[in-house]
Design a protein that fits this description.
nine-stranded mixed β-sheet, alpha/beta, membrane
């Protein structure tokens, strides 16, 4: 029998579940079992639980047939528990190192009490960790164990289930279970503490309580928050059935009023039309359970009295008076912004008052660039599949010629631009729209992203100032909060981005639409593209596409291409694509007139460049994840990986799992081409493994899946991923690239 059973309910926490389970499995105290309860989660929580269960016999994965909610999920875990003590850990929280050792030692020192209470710290998206402000209530001085009546101040602590360890025999003897619905901790925690024959405390932080910005239950706007009334009814019913507990009624009544007030004051919990009904039910509950006697500060007494009387208007006036000072300052700031916005913003505001155009869709790429990347693939497929759809492409005038016939090009900062942003139902981008965008009710915003992340992104850059530079993280997160859907090419991207861009959007793990073109382009079209770029017939074209170096203020050449092309010989040409800067433009690193080095930095479509090439030389650019779909060689040139890792960081070791052979110096790179290793069997094996991991849905139908889900509202019958063995690779123009061995 293990000392602890750690019960982890899991629902929509796939981005955090690995960290949660790893925090338990890495504990120095090892006498425990973990029961992960997959509450019919629609994301990858179930497979993650199964993965850990296969790896470690202490982990049990329990899958519920249908979503039951947090309380029933915990009950299911308790039914399978065999440990002396029950510990509940939510799937997005973590145990601190050595927490179980500290809990076990304290239980032994206090004679195995019915309940042990320990501390927690709130961990924010920024990485900042703040300990519970009432930690002094957990002072270990005094008797080792006690009854709640001896230390009633413990009821001032957060009444949650996960900051305590419970003796399983006590829980089973009392028949404690969790009810369904929101606020399920309330009718568990109060009865447990009031009934416990012995309680002990541990003055140590054991749990990291993740403060998810969006997506957690208690920040979800829903009428489910009305469940709070039933939960307190259960608490008072428990007390009423046990006369010896009547002494706790005044305290419970005061805590109930505080809880009701907190829910009503929260602007993101109750739907606006439901607020009057919530207040009426709160007043009825107060009258039903009215038990005076617990002292409260005067402002709280006033609020409680107004709530008990059902005086909602007076209650609102009291709250409004407290917000008046803040409102005046916000109004002044809004006035200044309105003055600066002038005519265009006035026009935009007027447009916001007009009805949405349900058949209008606006598309854009980073920096208002040319018609390219994922948004372009989705736009083309949407015009094909959605009847009557009118599309517009936001781009600078220099790129207007790239926009296809039938799609309206719109220049940023024009009246038509702001009209489109205000009234189009669909907004699609691989970057950010104007920060002044007001997301309207009914508008659907799809974020397509730009490839699979190897480099650190989003809020993960907080501790990397060289890479983050002047990033406004608050603004970034406000932008993320406007997303309805975020596109993901693979499970790796999903897990990284849901953590790096925390919010309540829906992830569509459908593949990368910008790779669809790879599956429908024939050799004749490839030959035409090569001719357009000026690639000589019969030549082997190497696409050189390095990444931007965050640690360098001035971007220097990462590779001597003129020397490389001389080493390779006359059969080779190099397509040079300068790194993209953070704003999306190309940063020129050299000026060359060598006839076999073709500058393609200004070319709008990396997909075209990939199709026209025979192999890719890169380092940390996300292009490699797309390129392997072509089943053409990839060579990584990583001469500065230590500096790059220190400044930017990566999500996995690219040298241990590369898409092709790796060179750490120019001499190694030259040797790789001289010996043909760049296109040998080892290169093919690495590429196949890389493609299997990162391209599971890149089958030519990614854009169709997106359009059917987002624009047509279809959730069933989406095109299933084509098995890799059945996918057709686009053949390069050169079936036998290089012709002869590379040489001087």
């Amino acid at each position: 029998m293990p000392r602890f059973t750690v019960i982890v309910p899991a629902f929509r926490v796939q981005a955090y579940l690995h960290a949660c389970l790893d925090s338990v499995l890495s504990q120095s105290f090892e006498d425990y079992e973990i029961i992960v309860v997959d509450d019919a989660s629609p994301d990858a929580c179930g497979p993650i639980a199964d993965e850990y269960a296969r790896r470690d016999p202490r982990v049990t994965a329990l899958h519920l047939p249908r979503n039951a909610g947090l309380g029933p999920a915990r009950n299911a875990g308790m039914e399978r528990a065999s440990g002396d003590y029950l510990i509940f850990l939510d799937g997005d929280d973590t145990l601190l190192p050595d927490a179980l050792r500290a809990i076990a030692d304290r239980l032994g020192a206090t004679g195995d009490p019915d309940v042990l209470m320990y501390d927690y710290a709130r961990t924010y998206w920024s990485g900042r960790s703040v300990r519970n402000v009432l930690a002094d209530r957990l002072d270990e001085r005094g008797p080792a164990s006690f009854r709640l009546a001896d230390r009633p101040e413990l009821l001032q602590l957060l009444m949650v289930v996960w900051n305590k360890a419970y003796r399983r025999a006590f829980v089973e003897a009392e028949g404690f279970t969790f009810p369904p619905g929101y606020y399920e901790d309330t009718p568990w925690t109060y009865p447990v503490l009031m009934s416990a024959g012995s309680i002990a405390v541990l003055d140590a932080v054991c749990v990291s309580y993740r403060q998810r910005r969006r997506g957690n239950i208690l920040s979800t706007t829903s009428e489910r928050h009305f469940d709070i009334f039933d939960q307190y009814d259960r608490v008072f019913a428990y007390v009423d059935a046990r006369p010896e507990l009547a002494v706790w009624r005044p305290v419970l009544f005061r805590r109930m009023l505080d809880h009701f007030s907190a829910v009503y004051a929260s602007r993101d919990r109750l739907p606006l039309p439901s607020r009057p009904a919530f207040f009426r039910l709160a007043a009825a509950s107060c009258r039903r359970h009215h038990t005076p006697g617990a002292p409260a500060p005067l402002p709280a007494q006033l609020r409680h009295g107004l709530m008990r009387l059902g005086a909602r208007r007076t209650y609102r006036a009291l709250a409004a008076s407290r917000r008046l000072g803040h409102g005046l300052s916000r109004g002044a700031a809004a006035l200044r912004r309105a003055v600066r916005s002038a005519a265009l913003q006035a026009h935009y505001r007027i447009q916001l008052l007009l009805p949405l155009r349900s058949r209008d869709a606006v598309f854009a790429t980073r920096g208002h660039g040319a018609y390219a990347c994922g948004p372009a693939a989705i736009e083309a497929k949407a015009r094909e599949l959605v009847p009557g759809l009118r599309t517009a492409w936001l781009c600078r005038p220099v790129h207007a010629h790239t926009v296809p016939t039938g799609t309206q090009p719109l220049a940023p900062g024009t009246f038509a631009y702001w009209s489109a942003l205000a009234r189009a139902k669909y907004l699609v981008n691989n970057a950010d729209f104007d920060r002044r965008l007001v997301k309207r009710r009914g508008q659907i915003l799809l974020q397509t992203h730009r490839g699979t992340p190897l480099r650190t992104i989003g809020t993960d850059l907080l501790d990397r100032p060289a890479a983050a530079r002047d990033t406004d993280f608050e603004q970034l997160l406000r932008t993320v909060d406007t997303w309805d859907f975020a596109l993901s090419a693979n499970p790796h991207s999903t897990l990284v981005r849901e953590r790096a861009y925390p919010s309540a959007y829906t992830t569509l793990e459908y593949g990368s639409p910008r790779t669809d073109v790879y599956h429908r382009t024939g050799p004749a079209e490839v030959a035409r593209l090569r001719e357009t770029l000026g690639i000589p017939a019969g030549a082997t074209a190497l696409l050189h596409a390095p990444a931007h170096r965050d640690y360098r203020r001035v971007q220097r050449p990462v590779l001597d291409l003129e020397l490389l092309v001389r080493v390779l010989g006359p059969q080779f040409v190099i397509l040079e694509r300068a790194p993209r800067t953070p704003n999306g433009s190309g940063s020129r690193t050299r000026t060359t007139t060598h006839p076999r080095i073709i500058d393609v930095s200004g070319h709008p479509s990396p997909e075209t460049l990939a199709l026209a090439s025979d192999a890719l030389i890169t380092d940390y650019a996300s292009l490699m994840f797309d390129y392997v779909n072509l089943d053409r060689p990839v060579v990584l040139y990583l001469d500065d990986i230590e500096a790059y890792e220190a400044a930017r960081g990566t999500y996995f070791d690219i040298t241990s799992f590369p898409p092709g052979v790796v060179a750490r110096s120019q001499d190694e790179l030259f040797d790789i081409f001289a010996t043909d290793h760049w296109r040998g069997s080892r290169s093919a094996q690495l590429r196949a493994a890389f493609r299997a991991r990162f391209c599971p849905y890149d089958d030519g139908h990614a854009a169709e899946r997106v359009v059917r889900r987002v624009f047509l509202g279809e959730t069933d019958g989406l095109p299933l991923p084509v098995p890799p063995s059945a996918r057709r690779a686009v053949l390069p123009a050169q079936q036998n690239p290089a012709g002869a061995r590379a040489g001087g």
